[in-house]
Write a structure and sequence with these properties.
Radius of gyration: 27 Å
Organism: Streptomyces vietnamensis
Number of domains: 4
Protein name: Arabinogalactan endo-1 4-beta-galactosidase
CATH architecture of the largest domain: 7 Propeller
Keywords: Signal
Mean pLDDT: 95
Structural class: mainly beta
Number of strands: 54
Pfam family, one: Glyoxal_oxid_N
Largest sheet: 10 strands, mixed
GO biological process, one term: carbohydrate metabolic process
Shape: globular
CATH topology of the largest domain: Methylamine Dehydrogenase, Chain H
């Protein structure tokens, strides 16, 4: 059951009064299929592409003119209620301020062939015209396109392509403030403490609405959004109806750059500007209290966001729509990304024996959908391990004892032996021996007693490890084993050994020979339990752990991060710099240069909710131990979201939700380009090029003769990885020793220790002296 706030729209449905619609073509002879029908409020009338005489060929497009500029963040497409013909399959969305200049698509993707309404999100931005183009018909039934209704969504409170502006030296003044009965001064919105607030004057005769607060940045700054954090200690004074205006001199304020009405809850709100404003003074004017409780206004914190600098903050691509919520993903050779949800594209439940899957072609951006029935396995809430031969092993979940294998070479799924213990939310890793290890997973099957077992690639069967109970690795979650043995962080080392380094605050060494064993590796520094945080191997024997919460849900997340260094049988944990934002349900990805990017998550974890979403990604630098902000995300990525390093050095971030008829399903994703690939103007930096010498397979301990298009500084292996539920135990970065042997020629040594370079498929990157990576070549090390 989704929580109540998951059922509330993340963005308001815009008022369609005065809107008009036109189409590339429409049917007016055989039926009333005019474009205007998508705005008439009736699902019984439709727009249909021309089909009498010679049908108009695909693609077909329909354009909505709002006749005013508004912040738009999504198009809601409702297929016709009767008949399947004309359902949109592959689509593109463009926006325009003038109806003439359209630029690149803001969203692309593929829709499921069904009658459900589809919300097609994109980065919030000011526009007057929005165009939906149907490239294909969903069922390939003919050259037709149809729609019963089209809505547009407004500002969701998630600014895109912005970064938090530093507040050093800023001051704040207000139209009025309470100073008699409490410290309600305007300055409190800039002090970094959510427990202190600005409050309008209420002692004596309360100051009437409207109330305003003005931030003086003391310098002219490009500003594109205002972030408002309501008070934490009660509802009185929450801002409802508002406008934002700007000024260069503090006297003359222009027309509003943002306006709207915020919901009556305690979540952080954002006012995205319809245009970037170069201003010194930014004024928030509140004309209505959100709950109509009285003539009051309050605020805990106010922040401003400005346009991102690509060279410092990176940039986001268009939103790519999926025909399902990508809850689990795996990177495949051939520039493909495998994704799956559950038995349904947007919800889970039961043990139905089949799974909805999709594959994103990273070269073309096209997404294909397929239902997998032959393994009898609903693979929601699984364990995942990338095998030594490049196949993907998926275990448990809704069909809790099942195990399935995907082979990217044949694009085929097959069943392997059932596990001895039924599991869901379990942890998995490949071992240095080429076997796969699994532990925990009380979400499915009988809670508790989810001891370890090992899968053999030779026999396709599992053997129990009675010496590896899950209890020593569990957190102290108040819901017991059901939540306490979920999503463990595992790092495989030499000799079939594994370090379990979280989310429990107690770390453990695990051996997998014979009956196996589990022994204490000491605490993770001064960390508490950190469920739904994660760990990332950023160097050989070096890991970074990030975020999490003492319980699976409803406990505040942490900003803390730790490094864990492995030296033989010792695991030493140390606290590194804190993240700028507390987060649970986030995802982290190690980059070829050794830095770690973290995306999404919530400050207060609640499954299927987008409240307290963190929209600012961060980048951790192992050289300094510090986190720095990256360009903000257009879509929240929380529970059931994923992130993966791609072969071109960029990162896919997507998913979230899977709660059925709710507003927090995010059947989409976007690709983030890290700053190491970009110049300040957003143009791509020159990159090293690997021209040859990378065989499809190589043994551990061998040397490669790699040729490049020019000089490079280093080489690194990045393991092709799989992610689900904030966890990716397949990630591994292995720097390689290399020697120049001539112009553009290098001897590159692959480590002999399979505990360092686990068997499996890797991406080989070359990096220049500035840390700019090449496009990778795939190689399977065994």
């Amino acid at each position: 059951m989704a929580p109540a706030n998951a059922m509330e729209p993340m963005a308001p449905v815009l008022d369609r009064t005065g809107w008009t619609a036109t189409a590339s073509d429409e049917e007016t002879v055989g039926e009333n299929g005019r474009a205007a029908n998508v705005l008439d409020g009736s699902t019984a009338t439709i727009w249909h592409s021309k089909w009498t005489g010679t049908p108009a060929p695909l693609p077909h497009s329909i354009t909505v003119d709002m006749h005013r500029t508004a912040v738009v963040s999504a198009l809601v497409y409702k297929p016709r209620a009767t008949g399947a013909n004309g359902r949109v399959g592959e689509y593109r969305i463009h926006v325009s301020a003038d109806g003439q200049n359209w630029g690149s698509p803001v969203a692309t993707g593929t829709l499921a062939d069904d009658t459900a309404a589809k919300t097609l999100g994109f980065a919030p931005q000011g526009a007057r015209f929005v165009r939906l183009t149907a490239v294909t018909e969903a069922g390939n039934r003919g050259p037709w396109t149809s729609a019963s209704e089209i809505d547009l969504l407004g500002d969701p409170g998630t600014p895109a392509a912005t970064v938090d502006l530093p507040r050093t030296g800023w001051t704040a003044t207000a139209s009025d403030e309470e100073t008699v009965k409490e410290n309600g001064r305007a300055a409190n919105v800039l002090d970094g403490d959510a427990a202190t607030i600005w409050h309008s004057r209420y002692s004596g005769t309360a100051a009437p609405l409207p109330h305003s607060i003005t931030v003086d940045t003391h310098r002219t700054t490009a500003v594109s959004a205002l972030v408002y954090q309501p008070r934490k200690d009660g509802p009185n004074g929450r801002a409802g109806a508002y406008t934002v205006t700007t000024s260069t001199d503090g006297t003359t304020f222009g027309a509003p750059v943002a306006s709207g009405t915020w919901r009556d809850d305690d979540t952080v709100k954002t006012a995205t500007f319809t245009r970037v404003s170069n201003a010194r003074f930014i004024r928030l004017t509140v004309t209505g209290e959100a709950g109509n409780r009285g003539p009051w206004t309050s605020a805990a914190e106010i922040r401003l966001s400005g346009p991102a600098n690509p060279a410092a903050h990176g940039s986001w691509s268009r939103i790519t729509g999926f025909p399902l919520v990508p809850v689990a993903t795996a990177v495949l050779p051939g520039d493909k990304l495998l994704a799956w949800s559950a038995y349904a594209i947007d919800r889970f439940g039961g043990s139905n024996g089949y799974t909805q899957t999709a594959i994103l072609d990273l070269k073309t951006g096209r997404v294909t959908q397929r239902r997998i029935d032959n393994t009898g396995h609903d693979m929601f809430c699984p364990g995942i391990a990338m095998l030594a031969d490049g196949r993907v092993l998926v275990t448990g979940g809704s069909n809790a004892e099942k195990a399935s294998i995907y082979d990217p070479a044949t694009d085929a799924w097959s069943a392997t032996g059932d596990m001895n213990i039924a599991r869901g939310y379990q942890a998995m890793t490949l071992l240095s021996t080429g076997e796969a290890f699994v532990l925990g997973g009380s979400w499915s099957g009988t809670a508790g007693d989810k001891s370890g077992e090992v899968w053999s690639p030779d026999t396709g069967t599992w053997r129990k490890l009675p010496g590896v109970p899950a209890v020593p690795a569990m957190t102290a979650d108040p819901r017991g084993a059901y939540r306490a043995d979920n999503h463990m962080w595992l790092y495989a080392t030499s000799g079939g050994k594994v370090l379990q380094l979280g989310p429990s605050k107690q770390m453990n060494w695990i051996t997998t020979g014979g009956n196996g064993s589990i022994t204490s590796a000491g605490p993770r520094g001064d960390s508490q339990d950190a469920m739904t945080g994660n760990a990332v191997a950023y160097d050989i024997g070096k890991l970074l752990t990030l975020g999490g919460s003492p319980a699976y849900e409803n406990k505040p997340a942490t900003r803390r991060a730790y490094t864990v260094s492995i030296d033989g049988d010792r695991a030493e944990a140390a606290r590194t710099g804190d993240m700028g934002h507390a987060r649970a349900f986030g995802n982290s990805v190690v980059l070829p240069d050794g830095k770690v990017a973290v995306f999404g998550g919530q400050a207060y974890p609640v499954p299927f909710s987008d409240a307290t979403s963190v929209l600012t990604p961060e980048l951790w630098d192992p050289a300094t131990g510090r986190f720095t902000p990256l360009a903000s995300m257009a879509v929240p990525r929380n529970y059931h979201s994923v992130a993966n390093l791609l072969p071109d050095g960029r990162i896919f971030s997507g998913g979230g939700g899977l709660c059925g008829d709710c507003a927090t399903n995010h059947a989409d994703g976007a690709v983030f380009t890290p700053p190491y690939l970009l110049n300040e103007d957003g143009s791509p930096k020159p990159r090293p090029v690997i021209t040859g010498g990378v065989p499809p397979r190589a043994a551990a301990g061998t040397s490669l003769t790699v040729t490049t298009g020019g000089p490079v500084a280093s080489f690194v292996l990045m393991r092709a990885a799989a992610a689900t539920h904030s966890t990716d135990n397949d990630q591994r970065r292995v720097p390689l020793a290399s020697t120049a042997t001539g112009t553009g020629a290098y001897t590159v040594s692959v480590p002999a220790d399979k505990g360092v370079v686990l068997p499996g498929t890797y991406m080989l990157f070359a990096l220049d002296a500035h840390g700019v990576p090449s496009v990778a070549r795939f190689i399977t090390v065994s």
